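Sample pair:
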Amino acid sequence: KSIIAIDTAARSVIKTIALTHVSDRLAIHPDGTRLYSLSHGSGKVYIIDAATGEVVKSHALIEQGAPADIVLDAPGERLYVTLGHLTTTSLAVLDTATNDISFPEISFEGLPQALALHPAAQQLFVTTEPPQASSCTEIFGKVYVVDTNGLKLTSILVVKGVVADILVTKSGWLFGMNKQTNHLELLDKNGQFLSRFPMTVL
């Protein structure tokens, strides 16, 4: 129940921030003044003063659907949160200037998992797991592409397996961790499979 700040040059701990919750996901504002912590257990997103370690504000999202992942945009203006239950909305957006949260009318089929933002283009990628995944031998998950300017769904990529985590490059290539096959998979911007790398425990 703590956040540890490390000096990467000296490779030493410079600060420890005690928390009242377990932090499952973490993001930091570009100016270093705020931390954003997601707790699966409490179903909350916490806004933390990085200097004092005090919680500035928290948002309980359990009624809208347990939060699954967070990602902060490059300017530090919006924090996106996926909501892991099947509800009328599957996404929450935190305005970092006001610390207020909104729920755009965007819903995804299945259980939202991971988030990724394109470094240059205004695109948000959201992976989902089919509700019936545990009972199916062949599973097809989806990656939803959202235009962050209008917060509108623009396209859907269908992927064999379940993408539990995702990264996107400047060129638009997607790296997805497929938890069904235990492979790191490379997809192009249209969702076409390019290559697969087995993940082994060393």
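The two ends are 28 Å apart (CA to CA).
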